[in-house]
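debug: dumping io for the single-chain case to check the tokenizer round-trip. Nothing else runs in this session.
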Amino acid sequence: MASSDVIGAVKDLGDRVNGHPEHVATVVPQLIALLDDQREPLVIAAIVDALNKASDEVASLEALRFVDHSDDSVRLAVAHALPAGVESPLGTSLAAAGLMQLTRDPVDEIRDWSTFGLGSQLNVDTTEVREALWARIDDASQMIRDEAAVGLAQRRDRRAVQLVADRLTDEDAGPLVFEAAEYLADPRLHDALRRWSAARPDDEAIRRAMHACDGDFQRTRTTRQAELLEAIGRLLTDRVELTALAMFCDLQGTDVVMQVDESGRVWNVDSLLARAGHDIERAAQLGLSDLAR
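debug: decoded output
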């Protein structure tokens, strides 16, 4: 079969699993089998791209065998694929190792995607990952430097504070800089963000970052979250079938979420409060009403 025909068939397989997890178990083995017989870089890249669309750990980790490939298009496909659907501790460790290697690639686009994948897509925080991201702070590409800053900020690495403070003085500071500031939530960034907000009052990313770095705002937010937790706890007193109430934030996230027992129902706390017009008791009632549905 000609390479163009194989690529066409592979794209069709990729479309079958793109957003359709019910086809993953059937399609991914076909794609993996195709990889074993290929030598043409364009075909390999197409298969890795199709595996990426599966958003499946087994599929994504197949890309590891090509992390050292001589062709740029193949290594780029690997950088795209490695973080997709990876969740297990071993899979995350293997994907992180591959991405750390690719953050040193001579091709800018590959370094960019692998820095993004390592810093923002993989849920992993180790000394090695932080140092790989820190190594990109001196990258020739400003985009890659900003991606590295976001990855460090997600891990609350305080070395990123001065990096972001310096970038906030640059006219070309963009969404990645504001995203990093939001993760850091450092009051030292607040005045610079307030100046940005005055110049661009409709920019939601700037607004979120400014609020995150506002100590008074965060203290009020924390108090209201605690009050909501207490209010729901009171309402649950007579519901013996619901025995646990938790409020937490993911390691690399900014949203505070709440879960009651093992219902599987999770609320974004700020969104729940907004639905209730920031009335604590009403928010608690809404939460329990959601459980009854």
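debug: round-trip ok. DSSP finds 16 helices and three strands in the chain.
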